[in-house]
Amino acid sequence: MTETVISTGAICAETGDLQTLMSHARAIRDQQWGRTVTYSRKAFVPLTNMCRDTCGYCTFVKHPSSPEANIMTPEQVLATAKRGEREGCKELLFSLGEKPELRYEAARAALAQLGYERLTDYLADMCALVLRETTLLPHVNAGTLTDDEIDVLRPVAASMGMMLETISRRLTRKGQPHYACPDKVPLQRLRTLERAGEKHVPFTTGLLIGIGESFAERLEALEAINAAHARHGHIQEVIIQNFQRKPDIEMANHPEPSLEDMLRTIAAARIILSPDISLQAPPNLSARHPAYLDAGINDWGGISPVTIDFINPQHEWPEIRSLSQSCADAGFELRERLTVYPRYLGADSTFVSPDLLARASDMAEASGLARQQQHLGELA
Ligand SMILES: O=c1nc2n(C[C@H](O)[C@H](O)[C@H](O)CO)c3cc(O)ccc3cc-2c(=O)[nH]1
Ligand SMILES: C[C@H]1O[C@@H](n2cnc3c(N)ncnc32)[C@H](O)[C@@H]1O
Ligand code: MET
Ligand code: SF4
Fold first, then answer.
1. What does residue 207 show for φ and ψ, rounded to 5 degrees?
2. Rounded to whole angstroms, how far apart are CA atoms 164 and 187?
């Protein structure tokens, strides 16, 4: 199966010559995206760290009995958003635990204190608050979503996302990272991808690499993402994220994926996925930027000048200026983008709700100008 990855010749993505594989991937990237690599300047809001799942790799999640368990108040959300706005951010990334109220009384109580029964309704109101009080565009990364949840979030989120993580059901068995995680059952993740497409939501997804999946399973997952995009055209970007070991997780002794493994996977993704899907790898999860560019990525994802990466808190964001320099050294221009990609911002787009569409289009236009001015400023 792995041999069908490249149509132009029989090269196996798993064991074939790495340089050949990467040069195929680069060629596709260069043709579609050129020598521009993008990022979104964002502020990160971990709305709650309570979650009904217990992924073996997650350091973010806290049991409701932990003193660190919390739901952010509207005041806290707004404070972060305002700080981001002052620092020139355009995206507010909400990343949070999934449906804790379905599992824990303490989560229901905390939500009730805020006046809510369902976390998603609170999330939607926090998106609305950010839209009302700031210039930021909300991006929601809240895991699996029902039809109704998408309907509630769609009017107030410019884009949404959920990592598919893996397509492997094996990883839901006892002793595996997704054991007893109802939201990490691959069929549920795939259903969310499909629903987002049916409802025309610009969508981010991706794979978590090195949690016990086989190489063939990664390719299968990429094929599934691509098939959903072929049906609906909604996948704006795919993230290839390397598992990061941390001392306080179940997988504290699980090996991290090697650089070569990451490069093979990134290149395979670029070759399998439709060229119009942006390919992203995070710049803070390794000092591997130039190699990732060589393997075919065109985006670094959200980079925050104001908040840490709450999901991988030990990894600092590269300063945007120094990232820009290292991209330039590799022959790429680093450019800012919005959370929603330009192709969903046409005047007759059905992918963004009307109010948000007008607003995001204006921002795209204005920031294009601002960018030019900034560039000229730097030259002066
Ligand atoms: O800072 C992070 N941003 C993460 N983001 C944010 C992402 O980098 C940007 O928000 C998007 O590229 C939109 O601009 C995610 C977004 C998703 O929709 C799904 C998963 C992720 C995962 C992360 C992550 O681990 N760390
Ligand atoms: C928001 C996303 O963060 C990713 N995520 C969660 N824990 C880790 C980790 N230890 N290393 C890398 N990525 C992680 C998951 O893929 C999740 O979907
Ligand atoms: C820290 S993970 C944040 C998003 C969601 N809980 C997921 O796993 O997909
Ligand atoms: S990765 Fe997401 S779903 Fe899994 S435990 Fe952490 S917050 Fe919950």
1. -120, 140
2. 10
| Exposure class string for 315-350: b at 16+ Cβ within 10 A, else e | bebbebeebbebbeeeebebbbbbbbbeebbeeebe
Give residue 111 CA to ligand 3 midpoint distance, Å: 19
Classify the C-alpha dihedral 223-228-230-236 as positive or negative.
Answer: negative
Count the domains in the chain: 1
Report yes or no on 12 lying in a domain: no
| Tokens (6 digits) for 356 | 């948000």
| 57, 288, 314: residue to mutate for ligand 2 pocket, most atoms within 8 A of CB | 57
CB atoms within 10 A of CB 255: 9
- Domain region containing 45: 18-379
- ipTM score: 0.98
Dist. CA 198–CA 147, nearest whole Å: 10
CATH number at residue 163: 3.20.20.70
What pTM did the predictor assign? 0.94
- Encode pLDDT of 144-198 as tens digits: 999 999 999 999 999 999 999 999 999 999 999 999 999 999 999 999 999 999 9
